[in-house]
Amino acid sequence: MNSPALQRGTFLFLLAVVTIAFGWILLPFSGAVMWSVALAILFTPIYRRLVKRMGGRRNLAAFTTLLLATIIVVIPLVVITVSVVDEVSVVQQMIRSGDISFTSYFQQIVNALPHWALDLLNRFGLGNVEGFIGRVSQSALKSSQLIATHAVSIGQNTFEFLVSFGIMLYLLFFLLRDGAELSKTIRNSLPLAKPHTHYLLNKFTTVIRATIKGNIAVAAAQGIIGGIAFSFLGVQGALLWGVLMGFLSLLPAVGAALIWAPVAIYFLAVGDIGKSLTLIFIGVFVIGLVDNILRPLLVGKDTQMPDYIVLMSTIGGIALFGINGFVIGPVIAALFMAAWDLFASSGEGERDMPPLP
Asked: How many Å apart are CA 32 and CA 24, to the nearest integer?
């Protein structure tokens, strides 16, 4: 009854139970934990340099790195968020006053369509333009109500956000200071061969670092270019649309086009050919090239994943995990590919294992 096999089985069961229970406790703050780990991986090289320059004072180096992370990441996000909130309130007032009317914009586009296009709409049952506009307006009204509801929810959850933010900064400090020891403990605890464990953990850190740096660089570049272009062309709410383009650029290939393409179509429909061609040129040859050049270089090259895997894993991750999914999706995809590479090479001997990064 007290055999070693029974003891081991009981211990493994207990280990699984307490691990699941601990994960359950951390579940409400999973986003804070994930971003603290991601930022720790991203800023660890800076922390190591500071440790050398500060004579091995790890606490001071970790605190300095935390301040740098706050200045580089947190403060710009807060400033942009406040500016966007002000911009949204201005745009909302203009929509209520009628200065901005998406219904009239759509009507102008329909009125500019040639007869063959109208016949094509009639053939597909879309000829009732007024009814279609009514449905679009109704959908816009429901969307605004939904946004207002979420805004109230965000206001009610401000305390929870502040708690999560505080946990993230607190955990980031200790991950920076003790990250090397924690990583060593994980490597020694995992029931895998040491070369396999080392390879998978290196793949994990490489993908997180490349994904965050690459996606943030692409989002910032596309958002800035799009916002400047909209401001130059006289589009109202240029800052808001620029931020939306940056956010949607997390969807590779098609993200920013969801904003600038309809505006270009509108300019073309109302006869403003110059603005339309300018925006199309900027969208295709400037914003598009940023996505097609920077993303493969910063994300695909370091992660050693094909572009289509990066695309599918990013979209799938965002669909399942929200904004956090643009990091979680590629990480899962990279670990999937790395694990199968190890499995395929395990039958050919350790010497044929994929090279360590």
From this structure: 14
- Of 158, 181, 204, the domain-final residue: 181
Same domain, 230 and 149: no
- Residue partners of 321: CB distance under 8 A and separation at least 6: 328, 329
What does the DSSP 8-state code read for residue 286?
I
- Can you tell me which residue has the tokens 């914009």? 105
Phi and psi dihedrals of 149, rounded to 5?
A: -65, -45
* Distance of alpha carbon 119 from alpha carbon 127, whole angstroms: 8
CA distance 206 to 186: 17
| Contact criterion met (CB below 8 Å) for 132 and 105 | no
AA letter at 303: T
Q: Which two tokens stand for residue 102?
A: 């998406």
Task: Say which DSSP state 299 is in.
Answer: I
Q: 32 near 170, Cβ under 8 Å? A: no
Whether residues 233 and 89 fall in one domain: no
Per-residue pLDDT tens for 297-353? 666 566 667 767 777 887 788 788 877 787 888 888 888 888 888 777 765 544 444
Q: Is pLDDT of 126 > 50?
A: yes
Amino acid at 228: I
Q: What's the domain range around 345?
A: 190-357
**Are 97 and 209 members of one domain?**
no
Shared domain check, 175 and 196: no
Give the span between the Cα atoms of 231 and 347, in whole angstroms.
Answer: 59
**Residue 2 falls within a domain, yes or no?**
no
Choosing from 181, 201, 216, the residue where a domain stops is 181
Distance separating alpha carbons of residues 314 and 331, to the nearest angstrom: 9
313 alpha carbon, distance to own chain's centre = 12
Amino acid at 16: A
The verdict on residue 7 lying in a domain is: no
Same-domain pairing of 95 and 149: yes
Query: Which stretch of 7-11, 25-29, 185-189, 247-251 has the lowest confidence by average pLDDT?
Result: 247-251
Split into its structural domains, the chain has a count of 2
Examine residue 4 and state whether it is found in any structural domain, yes or no.
no
Q: Which of 226, 175, 244, 202 is nearest to 36 (CA)?
A: 175
